[in-house]
Input
Amino acid sequence: MKQLLKRKICDSLLYGIMAATAAGVIAALLFVIIYIFRSQAGFLNLRFLTSAETGILPMIVTTLYVVIVSIAVALPVGLATAIFLNEYSGNSSFIRILRLAIETLAGIPSIIYGLFGLLVFCRILNFGQSIIAGSFTLSIMILPVIIRTTEESLKAIPDSFREGSLALGATKFQTTVFVVLPSALPGILTSVILAIGRVVGESAPVLLTVGLAKNMPRTIFESGRTLTIHLFYLTNEAVRPEDFGIAFATASVLVILVVVINTATKILTSNFRKRLGDI
Output
C-alpha cells in the first residue's frame, strides 16, 4: 500500500514537472512573439509588405526564391539517399563512410558553408553573388536534416508492409515507391519543415553567396537580400528610433512566414494520415 502511494506521488510529481516544463516552453514562445509584434510599432501593414521601394517585398521574394530552389535541389537528393541507406544498403565500409560524411556535414558551422559556396558557386562556377549560388550552398547544408529525418521515418514503417507487398508479387522498387514512401510521407514533410526553417533562419552563408542588393530579383541568377539579411542590416545600421520598428516588423514577417509554413504542412500531414487510416 505504501509502495503504491509512493508511486502515485512520484508519478504526480514527475507529471507536474513535465507540465511545468511544457508550460514554460509555451510561455517563452508567446513572450517572444508578443514582444516582437508589440515592438514593430505599427510599421507592419499592407504597404510595408507590398511596396518594393519603402517596404520589404523584394526581400520576401528573394527569401521565397531561396527556399524553393534549395528544397527543389536538396529534397530529391536527400530522399534518394535516405531510401538507399534504409532500404538497400548493408553495413559495408562505403556505407559507414557515407554515414560519417552525413554526420560531418551536420556538424559543420554555417559560415564554412558560406565560404565554400563563395569559392565554388560564386567564383569557380562563375554564378557570382546570386540566388542560385546561395540556394545551392543552402541545399548542401540542409541535406543532413532531410536525410536523417527521412531515414527515421522510413525505419518506423513496419516490416509487415514490405513483406505483404513483396508477397503479392511487387518488386523491391515498387514496394518502396508505392508502399513505404506513402506511409512515410508525414515524416518526409517534417524533414521539409525543418529544412525550410533552417533555410529561412540562416544569415552567414546567405550574406556571402546571395549578397546585400536591395532589389527585386527577376531571375534566380541575380543577387538579392533575404529577410534575415535585411533584419541584420537594419539592426546593424540603425540610427533612428524608427529603424528598430522596421526591424521588428521584418522579424514579425519572418515569424508569420514560419508559422504559415508549419501550419500548412501540419494540415497536409493530418489529412494524409486520415486518408491512410481510411484505406
About this structure: The mean pLDDT is 86. The CA atoms of residues 82 and 151 lie 5 Å apart. The radius of gyration is 23 Å.
